[in-house]
Amino acid sequence: MTATSKQDQIAALFRQATVIPVLTIERLEDAVPLARALVAGGVRTLEVTLRTPVAIEAAKAMIAEVPDAIVGIGTILNGDDLARAEALGAKFGISPGGTPELLKAAATSRLPFAPGIATASELMQALACGFDVVKFFPAEQAGGIKALRALAGPFPHVRVCPTGGIGEANAATWLAEPNVLAVGGSWLCPSAEIRAGNWAGITAMCAKAMKTLKAA
Ligand code: 3PG
After folding, report:
1. Which controlled-vocabulary keywords does the entry list (predicted)?
2. Residue 87 lies in a domain
């Protein structure tokens, strides 16, 4: 697959998602009910982060048992993580950053991939490897919308998925930016709700958020 079509693919995935929950799954048995709860609330595009020992198995279970979920892998830190994501059948990969090793591996991998950037130099390194769809992370902490608008000056063609500090209160404001395809964050899947198995609560929260954000 060419770099351009991979970029178009991840841009399309992000755009149709609007919101991408950043999932940290502690217990494997939570994976499938959580994915079902999110999908039932209209949130289909999910980022399963490689932050726990069960993350890979959790993503596999979601892919096998929740066909309506579009499962990607997040917190990809190196080429091995990227290869694991591709092998398990993830639809996309996301990283909080981008080392030269990871960017090189991602450029040759078939997996649609968004590296993370927070500065102009990081963005230039991503662009040099063919990535013009990026995660802006940590979005609020790295300067928020003002920083994103400043980056859009020299890089008007770059499209982003901001994450970090985004929640119910500011998601719509971020989505109103012309270069924002989707927003990501953990607010739709709080760990307390996952631990409590409050699947109905998660569905209700997602449905409310999607209604508000799609309308905005
Ligand atoms: C990420 O990896 O995108 C962040 O951990 C999400 O940040 P949040 O918890 O502030 O939403």
Report:
1. Carbohydrate metabolism, Lyase, Schiff base
2. yes
* Domain at 114, CATH number: 3.20.20.70
Rounded distance between C-alpha atoms, residue 93 and residue 106, angstroms: 9
Q: Using the atom order of ligand 1, give the atom closest to the CA of residue 24.
A: 5
Q: 70 in a domain, yes or no?
A: yes
**Ligand 1 center from residue 24 Cα (angstroms):** 10
Q: At what angle do helices 120-128 and 100-108 cross, to 10 degrees?
A: 40
Residues 133-153: tens digit of each pLDDT: 999 999 999 999 999 999 999
HSE toward the beta carbon, residue 85, CA cutoff 13 A? 30
Q: Provide the whole-model pTM.
A: 0.95
Owning domain of residue 87? 3-211
Task: Classify residue 115: in a domain, yes or no.
Answer: yes
Q: What number does the ligand 1 atom closest to the CA of 140 have?
A: 10
Going from the Cα of 8 to the center of ligand 1, the distance in angstroms, rounded, reads 24
| pLDDT, mean of residues 51-75 | 98
Ligand 1 binding pocket, CB closer than 6 Å: 22, 96, 137, 163-166, 184-187
